[in-house]
Design a protein that fits this description.
single chain, 671 residues, alpha+beta, five-stranded mixed sheet, globular
Length: 671
Amino acid sequence: ISDQKPLGCWSVKHGQILTCPVVCNFETHEYIAVHDDKVLRIWKNEDLNLDKAFKATLSAEVYRIHSLPQGGPLVLFRGGAVRTLDALLEAPQQEIENLISAEAIKWSGAFMEGQQPVLIFTTEKVKFFVYVQKPQLSRLHKYKLEQQKSAKPRCFTAHITNQTVTLLCLCSNDSVYQVLIPLQKDTEEEEEEEILSKSLLLNLSLSGAVLKGSSLVVMDKDHIAVLGGQPEPGRRPKEYLTIWNTKFQTLQTSKELPLGTSGQLWCYEEKFFLIHGKVLTVIMYKRETSSLAAAVGKLKDSQTFDVSSFVNWNTLEDEELVVSFQSQESVALKAESSMNLRSKRSTVAGQPGTLSVGQLLLKLKDASNYVLENELKKLMAKAPTPDLQATIGCVVTALTDRCKRNPKYYPQSILQEIVETRNLSYSLCPDLMVVALEKKDLHLLQICLERFPDIPEEMTYACLKAFLSLSEDHLKNVDINLDSAICYIDVEFNDMEVKTEILENGFSEEVDQDMCDTKIPKESQSDGESCPVGLQKAALLNAVLHSPYTETFLLPHLKNLPAEQAILFLRYLYYLYVKCSEKVNTTLPGIRSPTINQIMDWMCLLLDAQFTVMVMLPEAKDLLSNLHKFVRAQVRFYSELNKIEGSLRELQRLNHLRESQTYSIEVLEII
C-alpha cells in the first residue's frame, strides 16, 4: 500500500466462486483461499496459476479462515467447528461436527490471549448467541445475548483485555452496546447457557442528527471507528467516518466521504482501509492517551476539529488521493478556528516556535526563494518523526501547485535537495515528476526514478520517451549524474584484455564459430560498435531501468513507443547485455549501474511490446539477428557447463572426504 502498486493477481476458473476472504499465513508466507465453500487452495507469491496451486477438498463448508501472527491459521466451519490449518491438511476429509444446528454465523474474530488463540463468533436463530473457543482446548462456551426488540445487532467487533472479551454491537437503534465476557477456564462439567446483558456505550449522533452506522472497528481500548451515513430526504445519504472515545462517550473527530463507500471498514496496524468512490483508501492514524480534557475539548464545536493531531485525512481530499495546496489551506484555517484551550496551552508551554502544517503552508504560499529555503532547512533539520515525511510531502505538493499557477516560478535547487536528502515517494508528492517533465528538469527526474519506489508505469514510460527523444547535443549542456554509466561507456581496452575476458566467460571467437556457425557479433569485440547513445542519455536510461514496475501495467505503454525510439532503446540494452557478458561476474562497474537481471527483463519486455514492429522494420533485422546469435551462444555455453556440474560436485565431495594429512594424486575423468 505504501507503493500503491499491484504486486500479484490470481483468479479462479469460470464458474468457481471465492466464498470467504483470502488470508496470509504469517508463518509460511502463503495465501489461503476457499472457493465453492469446501475447496481449499494454498499458494505462494511466485505461483502464477491458481489452478495449479495446492488443492484440498474438505468435508464441510467453511465460513471464515482467521490468520494470527503467532497462532497460525484457524478454520471456522459453518457448523461452528474450529480446526487449525495443520490439522485439516493432515486429513482433509475428516468428519466435521455441527455444533450450532440451524443457527447462522453473523460475525467471527480471532485474537491472541497470552500464547493461546481465542476464536469468538456470533450466530442468529431468532435470538443472537455468542460462542467463545480456545482451539487448543476442546471446550466451546455458548452464551445467549440479551434480547431487545428496539436494538437488534447489525454488526459486531471485539477486543480482549485482561482475560475479558469486550464485544461491541452496532444495533438498529443507531447505538453501540457493550457486552463483557470473562474468559473461562476449561472444565469438564456441563454449564448452563448464560445470558449476557448489554450496556449502552454510545448514541451515534453527528451535528445533532442521527448517524446510521454500517460498520465499526476497534482502534484501542478507548477508541472505536464507525462508518455510517445521515439520510437526507430526496438525496443520497451523506457518509462519514467517525472516531469515538468510548471511555468518555464522546465524538473525537469525523470526516465526510463525498464519493460514497461500500459500507465496509477495516483497521490494521494503525491504518484504516475503506472503499471511497472507486479507490481503496488508506488512512493513517496515531493513538493518543485518552483524557477528559481532550474529550471535552472536541465537544465544543462538532463541525470543525483539529484533525491533524489524531487522524491523517490527507488521502480523502480528492479521488486521486492528492493533497492540493488549497485543501491544506482550508484544513489549516479550520484547525485554527477550532483550536481549544488545551491545544493553545500545549503550544505555548511546549514548543513556542513550532508551526502546524497548515500554518507552514500559509507562510510559504507566496514566500521568496530565500525565505522558502530557510524554512525548509529548519524543517529538514528536525529529528525524524512519523509525521515529518508527510509534512515535507505536503510542502513539496504546495511548491508544485505554485509552479503550475506561476509558470515562471520553479525552485529547482530546493526540490532537488529535498528529494536527495529525504526518503520521499511518488504518492507523497504526485505532481512533482509531472512538473519536472514540463520544465525538462532531467536531473530531478533522474533522482526520482532512482529513489521513488512507487512511480506509476505511465510516468516511467513518459520519462523513457522523453529521454529517448532528446538530442545528444542538448544533453551535453545538461547537469546529470553520470556515475551509473561513466565506468563502462567509451572506455578503451586493448585486444588482448578483451579477448581474455571473453574467453573467461566462454565467448572466444573460435568457440562461437564452432557453436553457432557464425562469427561473434561485432559489438562484443574491442573494434566493434560503440555505445549507441551518449554518456548523458545512457545515465538517464539507466535511471529508468532502476525504476520498479509491474509488467502487466507497463507493457501497454511500451507498445506506444515510436519504432525509432524502440530500436534505439533495444540497441542500448543489447550493448549493456554484451558488456555484462564480457565480465565473469556479469556485473557492470559504477554506482547504480544496471544489473544483468534488469537489462534482461527490460529487453524481454520491449521485445514483447514491439516484436511485430521489429520484425517488419529492415533497420532492426541485423540487431535482432545479432541478439539471437549472442543469446544462443550463451545458452549453449551454459548448457556445456551444466553437463560437467555433476563431475564438479563429485570433486568437491571428494575434497571434503580426503584426509588433510595425506598426499595423493587423483585423476578425475569427465565424460
